[in-house]
Design goal:
Shape: globular
Low-confidence stretches: 104-111
Number of helices: 4
Mean pLDDT: 76
Distance between the termini: 31 Å
Largest sheet: 2 strands, antiparallel
Order of helices and strands: EEEEHHHH
Structural class: alpha+beta
């Protein structure tokens, strides 16, 4: 996983958030690299939110009341976009092309 801390949105408005690139593969019991054929974006966002809030509570960075408040927000603040993928067994050049396809707004100057 690669994570980048972002301080603003694509229009340079204040919007602190994290962007992450995460593999859609994992090692099986025999040590083979196995792709996951499908990601349920909503379930992945819920899992990520649960994991982050659990971490914040365990580390004493957010109490139960704060977590309840965050959970009550209309928009969770967590989203997963699984539309840009790199096919299995492709080389590094395909990864670069996929990254450029997935984040073109980050590569252009604001208008």
């Amino acid at each position: 996983m690669i994570v980048a801390v972002q301080a603003s949105g694509h229009d340079f408005s204040r919007h602190p958030h994290l962007d992450a690139l995460v593999t859609r593969c994992g090692w099986d019991r025999e040590g083979g690299w196995t792709p996951v054929p499908f990601i349920d974006s909503e379930a992945a966002a819920l899992l990520c939110r649960h994991t982050v809030f659990g971490f914040l509570k365990r580390e004493g960075l957010a109490g139960e009341e704060r977590v309840r408040l965050l959970l009550s927000w209309r928009h969770s603040g967590f989203s997963v976009h699984a539309s840009v993928t790199v096919p299995p067994d492709d080389g590094a050049s395909s990864i670069v092309v996929s990254l450029e396809r997935g984040a073109p707004w980050r590569l252009r100057a604001p208008s």
